[in-house]
Every structure is written in C-alpha cells, then in structure tokens.
Amino acid sequence: MNDKAIKSVLIVGGGTAGWMAAAAIRRAVGGRCSVTLVESDEIGIVGVGEATVPTIRDFNVMVGLDEAEFMRETKASLKLGIEFVDWGRIGGRYLHPFGWYGTSAQGVSVFAQEYLRLAELGRAGPLDDYSVCAQAARRGRVGRPSSDPRSPMAGFFYAYHFDAGLYALYLRRFCERIGVKREEGRIVDVLQRGEDGFVAGVKLADGRVLEAELFVDCSGFRGLLIEQALQAGWEDWSRWLPVDRAVAVPCAKVEGITPYTRSTADAAGWRWRIPLQHRTGNGYVFCSAHLSEDAAAARLLETLDAEALADPRVIRFQAGRRRKYWDKNVVTLGLSSGFVEPLESTSIHMVHAGINKLLQHWPDRDFSPVNVATYNERVIREYEAVRDFVILHYHASTRDDSEFWRYVRDMPVPDALAARVAAFRDRGLLYSVVADEYFAPTSWLSVMWGQGIRPERRNPLYDRQDATRLATAFEALREQFARLVDGLPEHEAFLDKHRMAQALAA
Ligand SMILES: Cc1cc2nc3c(=O)[nH]c(=O)nc-3n(C[C@H](O)[C@H](O)[C@H](O)COP(=O)(O)OP(=O)(O)OC[C@H]3O[C@@H](n4cnc5c(N)ncnc54)[C@H](O)[C@@H]3O)c2cc1C
Questions:
Q1: What is the pLDDT of residues 21-57, one digit of tens each?
Q2: By alpha-carbon position, which residue is closest to atom 4 of ligand 1?
Q3: pLDDT (tens digit, 9 = 90+) per residue, 490-502?
Q4: If 0-12 CB within 10 Å is exposed, 13-18 middle and 19+ buried, where does residue 1 land?
Q5: Is 44 close to ligand 1, i.e. is its CB under 6 Å away?
Q6: What separation in Å is there between the alpha carbon of 220 and the centre of ligand 1?
Q7: Please, what's the largest Cα pairwise distance for the chain?
Q8: How confident is the model at residue 365 (pLDDT cuts 50, 70, 90)?
Q9: Spatial contact of 130 and 115, defined as CB atoms under 8 Å apart
Q10: From CA 235, how far away is CA 324, in angstroms rounded?
C-alpha cells in the first residue's frame, strides 16, 4: 500500500475540459481518491468547441459513455473530415478526410509514391477517389469502421459535431452519477503553501475553502491556478497563427446535414460551418489587425445558410501555450493550458491527450520532478506538432488577395514544419516526427496536396512498376470504394433511424 497516494483531486472549471477530466480521473481512481469539481455559474463556459476528431470515440469508450445516449443528449451529427474551400487558392476545394488513402496493406507512403507516379502520367483521379471516407463524405453518406483489417472500412473513421453547451451538461450529469462531487462558486483566491508554493486550496466568494492534494486547472483562458497563481509563463505563437478573434452565431438547420465540417477561407481568416441535428454552428475566425469585430460579424451573417438564431458573439484569444503544463501540484488542461485555433478541431482532442498522459504519469504526494518534467516534455512536443500542422494550411496557400494572406503565406515557419514541407516538395516524402503525434502522414498528404504542393521528383524505386497495371489497380480501388459507399446510409437517414431507435427504446 502506497502511503503517499493522492487522496483528493480538485478540478477547477466545469467546461468541456473540466468535465472530461472529472469523468476520466474518477474512472481511473475509483473510490480511493475523492474527485471534486468547482465551477461558477456566474462566469459560465466558453460555449464553443463543437467539432471533434475520431479520438473522441476512444474517450467516450474509456469513460463508459453510451454512443446512442451521447448523440441524443448532445444533438450530435457524424463528421468524416473537413472540407477546405478557397484555402490553397480562391476557387479551390479539397477534403481532409479522417480515414486512410488506398489500402492498409499499401500504407500511405507507398500509396503516395504510386499516386504521384500516376499523376505524373496524367492517369490519377482526384485524391478523394482513393479514400472511402472522402467518397462517403462527398456523397453525404456515413458508416462505421470495420474491425476486419482486410476490409476497406477498417480505414474509415468518424467523429462528431455536437452542441458544446449540451455536451458540458451531459458530462456533468454523467460525472455526478459516477461519484464526482460538484461545488458551485466563484474562486476569489488561490491559497499556496509558504514552504514550496504548492497550491493548498481555493477560496470561494462565499468564504468556503476547498482543499486538495492535486489540482487540475481547467479554468479556461484565465488560467486561474497555472498562471494567475503559479505564473507558469506563456509562449506566444501569434507570429505564426495571427488570428486572434472569433465571432460565432448559430443558424437554423438546413436539409441534408453534411457529414463534415466546412472551413472557408476569407479575407482575414476563415469561417466554420458545423451542422448539428437541430441547428448549424457558424463562426468567423479572424485577425483583428486586418478586420474589425463589427465587419467580421457582418461578413458572417451575410454568409449564413439560413436565419440566425442568436446575436453574434465575439471571443478573443491568442495562440500559444503555457511554458509548463504541469507545475508543482497543478496540471492544466483545455484553454487554460494553451490554444491552437480551431481549424483542425484539435482542442478537445488535446484535452483527451493530456488526460491520457496525466493518467500515465499519475503522481503520488512526492510529485517526482522527473515525472513532471517528462510529462511537460511529451505534451509540449505533441502540441507543437499540432501547431505546425495548422500553420501548414496558411503557409501553403498561394492567395494574394489581402494583406493577411500575403503575411501568412510569406512568414517564416517553425523549422520542423519547413523541413517536412521541403521533404514532400523534394520527393513526396511523408513522415512523423513525434511518437504521440496526432496527425498521421495521411493527413499531411491531404493538406499538402490539397493546398497545391506538388513534389518535384519521386522515389525512383517506384519507376519499376508497370504503369498500366498500376492505373488498373487504382481504378479497381476507386470502384470498390464507390460500391461500398453505395451501400452506406445517407447521413440524415442514419440520424433519423438513430432517433427512432432511441424513441422506441425510451
Ligand atoms: C472560437 C473557438 C472555437 C473552438 N472550436 C473548437 C472546435 O471546433 N473543436 C475543438 O475541439 N475545440 C474547439 N475550441 C476549443 C474548445 O472550445 C475548448 O477546448 C473547450 O471548450 C474546453 O474549454 P475549457 O473547458 O478549457 O474552458 P471553459 O469552457 O471556458 O470553462 C472554464 C470553466 O472554468 C470556470 N471558472 C473560470 N474562472 C472561475 C472562477 N474564478 N471560479 C470558479 N470557476 C471558474 C468557468 O465557470 C468554466 O466552468 C474552440 C475554441 C474557440 C475559442
């Protein structure tokens, strides 16, 4: 029995990050340690964050959420990827699907070289043709991954779009059911131990003090514990990601809920469109040095699919990260830990990734400095890889129609990103740089090709293949995927069936 085991955890903040952390930590520690969450109704949550990546399904399984209940409670739709419009150039359009290209046996590196050879010969179709996920998305159809590795559906992944407000409420009810204690109140002070500066407790406006041994700071952009109390420091990334505002507004639902997020590049940033069961979420993420908040709101309203359901709401942020994700006895997750704009819907994934690592590095009351340092190092590398992937979208654009686009196109980028782009440009080489990197080479291929980067040469080993045989094999693949997609349900019909099954079960 470890007499130094952590006996109490206090999670500060009840947004998506706080409740995700509460659910996972409670599941992991069971009854051996109390898990309490404090949040302030007066302050509320950021209330955006509606598009996810497929790892959300792993999170749901890890904590034991039922998919049907989750979809019903959060009004979720399925997401097979992101469509990028006007990014590489005005009038351009490509999809970044979640699944593989080609077959699992082939692997993405071989697929890319073979595809490049066919493209050079003028015998390749659009990249989407060779991804079952992309073909399904284009045709508004959805499916589920197969557990048979030989099936093309083994490489078919999906995530969700959901209502952020409903998701936090749903997780809260779930957490309370599994034994997380919730405290309501506004924190006015953070109490630190004199001898080492560790956090001892938080003081609420009504005078109560909540104590714990481990604190998880999920207090949103303000970083109540990690920054305001511990002053972990901030690394600013806005020279690479200069967008610093978003204006968001929901609009009425339109028929034919698309199973993908749409991101449309605009003069000073980009606009998101996230279709849910009951409404569509919209936003314009922009750079305030190039566009005023009023002008961004007006632009967003004029581009909606249907009638706005609320007034536009402005959210301010800065791209960057805390210098430490874990300091003393405080671990930070969510917006209090840092922010990479929502272009690739990665924030909720990073909460999940941070939780996974926290569980791997679960401390005792000694808070081993080696453990803390290793955690920080791993999370930093993972965040930087996501940051670089997001920067790629701007950097690889050829747009020349505004000062904003000229800046992001011409700006110097981080060395690791420059090296990856150079390797692809040189010979179509794709590789991972970090063990825990979220975006696989498949994603890098989608975006680099989609934005218009064309390799100057290829790996000469692939010249030995017979070109006609290769073209026939690619055509067979395209047809096989198309037939598979023929058999998949349309997204709207899938959601209707889901709703009906739930109504019958209720
Ligand atoms: C414009 C925009 C779009 C986004 N889109 C996406 C997306 O599509 N996909 C994605 O994955 N992510 C997205 N994100 C990120 C996503 O919204 C967040 O990662 C997620 O909502 C987690 O937020 P949070 O829980 O860290 O913070 P918040 O939701 O801000 O929660 C903070 C919590 O701390 C509490 N709190 C703060 N101060 C106090 C205090 N003094 N006392 C008591 N309680 C306090 C608040 O009450 C609240 O409960 C987006 C973010 C922005 C800004």
A1: 999 999 999 989 999 999 999 999 998 989 999 999 9
A2: 49
A3: 999 999 887 766 6
A4: exposed
A5: yes
A6: 5
A7: 78
A8: very high
A9: yes
A10: 10
